[in-house]
């Protein structure tokens, strides 16, 4: 048995390496849709601070579901509070929906729901303009798709599900083959 298997060559280093490379390629293919997510440093190289108009900063950016906001700031002075629209407009920091402040002055906020998000800094800085409103959109259709029409404007989540599940099954099948001949 052992001789036969070795003769066929399933256990040879070259075949094993080939399988590892193939699995790696499949995993990379699965990751491509996710790789389009962007981490936006709020305020660009000025960061999260006073004297920046974040309405202007955000005006030309499309924020997509799956992106992140990265707040970089002076941890001894400012903070990052998510509030509702009313409290964003009035700079009321007393009822945050979410306190994203970790204490490091570097906070990452996942934009994982398609909606409006409102952020302010407490401690009085909001009144000076330290407030950010972003609208998070669904991912646009993939570049290769047809011009916009009723069918191709289906939500991106459907696209993700269609692509990822077969990929997971494919990896499982390849892994099974790999383990059997190891
Ligand atoms: C925001 O929350 C406040 C309470 O902190 C509430 O009075 C107000 O109606 C809320 N606004 C919206 C738009 O939900
Ligand atoms: C937000 O959380 C940070 C870290 O836990 C804490 O120090 C700070 O007091 C909190 N701020 C508010 C307004 O709740
Ligand atoms: C979005 O991210 C937050 C924070 O990580 C998490 O608590 C929440 O469950 C996520 N929501 C969805 C819809 O994935
Ligand atoms: C930021 O700029 C917008 C558009 O020019 C303006 O409407 C808004 O009042 C400005 N905000 C602050 C806090 O200066």
Automatic annotation (TrEMBL):
Residues 38-138 form the Phytocyanin domain. Pfam families: Cu_bind_like. Keywords: Membrane, Transmembrane, Transmembrane helix. It comes from the Eukaryota. One of its GO terms (molecular function) is electron transfer activity. InterPro entries: Cupredoxin, Phytocyanin-like, Phytocyanin_dom. Gene3D superfamilies: Cupredoxins - blue copper proteins (2.60.40.420). GO terms for cellular component: plasma membrane. The keyword Repeat does not apply. The chain crosses the membrane at residues 14-32. This is Early nodulin-like protein 17. It comes from Ziziphus jujuba. The lineage of its organism: Eukaryota, Viridiplantae, Streptophyta, Embryophyta, Tracheophyta.
